[in-house]
Design goal:
alpha+beta; 7-stranded mixed β-sheet; 21 strands; about 35% helix; about 20% strand; globular
């Protein structure tokens, strides 16, 4: 019998995607059986602006066995309890998407349904009053959740803000120490096998050939293999997500300081991010070039920094959408080569993480069975579409009056999102399906933040006597307020446990 096992994996491109893939392979694949080689060129820049994450990044780091304190210090990281949205529903309005629920179910009734009944009874409390990460973020407080399910510090999660370039370098050291090799060079050609069209090798500028059995395309927007060589195709989602450019610039710490949350502020033709790290703040303006020119966008960004700019704004161009195939023949696209969804909910690194995990789950032999590729593509497409719908939700329910905001409010939504919104408006039900990147509390936080109040509530909530319900929810509110006030500030927690050394 012919041995068809994969002997060599070639990762095309470094950056966050390439080194996340290589680090995972070094932990789970590399050995006598499989070698991994990363081909990247220092002459080609990486996007490297995705410095905010969602809590699943902790699962990735734990799978690698990374020490959290070492990781935080190496990447100048801070902690993230959620996202502070400003001016999204309307100018002057603010809401918070926290990484946690709104309290435990009571007698099989979800917390937001209890709140809706209280609202019907005339109670003025806001749903966010029962969110611990929201309360803690408002006070700039942070402490890791407690593993004890009885503790009020148990029911939330956290993610990180970090320097993406430093994270890639950190993972590179990790991967190379475990046998991954790196080749410096610019790819100028891709050699395909005549009989089946598989990639046989990538050819470097100096004539060297790097051969492999499986190629992982982490070449970013260029999509060098999946699109440049294999023409996998692209599905354009710009009719729902019209932002097609971004400007990114770091600045000195200032303003609100080291907040335990990302800030997203809606602007005339898009939105601006603020991501605080230990050594600086990452900023950017994501915008639609159809509604604002580059010069005005740059001026808007630079006039709304918290501190002195540390560089000139760096421009990026993109198109929202995904590849029609993420896996084609013996090439698998991971990261920006597979698709782009603007970083509104910090999903870029999560999509890399899930793409790598999915490849390991469906890891092929050298024949790359199309059945494996088909299922990989189905699940990947589903994940992108679910996240797409979640991001569109932030835009489509707004009361702003600028042209771009009117357009995104009036566009016909994907059927999948229309159904979700209708279901929530009717009775506060959140439909969660296979491939949803965000759980029920996240959808509720956005609905509530944008002023969507269900017309009715779960009738099971009426089983709870009014006096008992009021007492229960007031106790929760007081407990959350007290717990948040007892937490240390993020500055104090980092200074005590994981302060990064100054960068040389």
């Amino acid at each position: 019998m012919v041995d068809q096992r994969i002997r060599k994996v070639v990762v095309v491109g470094g950056g966050t995607a390439g080194w996340m893939a290589a680090a995972a392979f070094s932990r789970l694949l590399v050995g006598d059986a499989v070698s991994v080689e990363v081909v990247e060129s220092e002459a080609i820049g990486t996007v490297g602006v995705g410095e905010a994450t969602i809590p699943t990044i902790r699962n990735f780091n734990q799978t690698l066995g990374l020490d959290e304190v070492e990781f935080i210090r190496a990447t100048q990281a801070s902690f993230k309890l959620g996202i502070d949205f400003r001016d999204w529903g309307r100018v002057g309005h603010r809401y918070f998407h926290g990484f946690g629920d709104f309290g435990a179910d009571h007698e099989a009734v979800q917390a937001h349904q209890l709140w809706r009944r209280l609202k019907a009874l005339g109670d003025p409390s806001g749903l966010e009053d029962w969110s611990l990460p929201t309360a803690a973020a408002a006070l700039n407080r942070f402490i890791p959740p407690s593993p004890d399910p009885r503790s009020p510090l148990h029911d939330y999660a956290y993610a990180y803000h970090f320097d993406a370039g430093l994270y890639a370098a950190f993972l590179r050291r990790f991967a190379e120490a475990r046998g991954v090799t790196r080749t410096e060079g610019r790819i100028v050609d891709v050699a395909l096998r005549g009989e089946d069209g598989f990639v046989e090798a990538v050819v470097l500028e100096d004539g060297r050939r790097v051969e492999g059995d499986l190629f992982v395309d982490c070449s970013g927007f260029r999509a060098l293999l999946i699109e440049g060589a294999l023409k996998a195709g692209f599905e354009d989602w710009s009719r729902w997500l019209p932002c097609d450019r971004a400007l990114a610039v770091p600045c000195k710490l200032g303003g609100d300081g080291l907040t335990p949350y990302t800030r997203s502020t809606a602007r005339e033709a898009g939105w601006q991010w603020r991501i605080p790290l230990q050594h600086r703040i990452g900023n950017g303006y994501v915008y639609s070039s159809a509604f604002v020119d580059d010069e005005r966008a740059s001026r808007t960004l630079m006039e709304n920094l918290d501190g002195q700019a540390l560089d000139d704004p760096r421009p990026l161009r993109f198109l929202a959408g995904r590849r029609r195939k993420f896996w084609d023949r013996n090439v698998v696209a991971v990261g920006l080569s597979g698709g782009f969804l603007e970083p509104l909910e910090s999903t870029s690194i999560s999509l890399i993480q899930n793409g790598v995990a999915r490849l390991l789950e469906f890891f092929p032999d050298r024949r790359c069975d199309p059945l494996l590729a088909d299922e990989f593509n189905r699940v990947s497409a589903q994940e992108y579409e679910r996240i797409r719908d979640f991001i569109i939700l932030h835009y489509c329910i707004n009361q702003r009056d600028e042209p771009m905001w009117r357009q995104v409010r009036e566009v016909e939504l994907p059927d999948s999102l229309q159904a979700k919104i209708a279901l929530y408006k009717a009775r506060g039900h959140v439909a969660i399906h296979e491939g949803d990147g965000f759980a029920r509390p996240s959808w509720i936080a956005i609905y509530n933040g944008l002023g969507v109040v269900p017309e009715a509530y779960d009738p099971l909530a009426d089983r709870i006597p009014e006096a008992e319900l009021r007492k229960l929810m007031e106790h929760r509110r007081a407990l959350i307020r007290h717990t948040a006030q007892s937490m240390p500030t993020q500055d104090a927690f980092i200074a005590r446990h994981c302060a990064a050394p100054p960068l040389s």
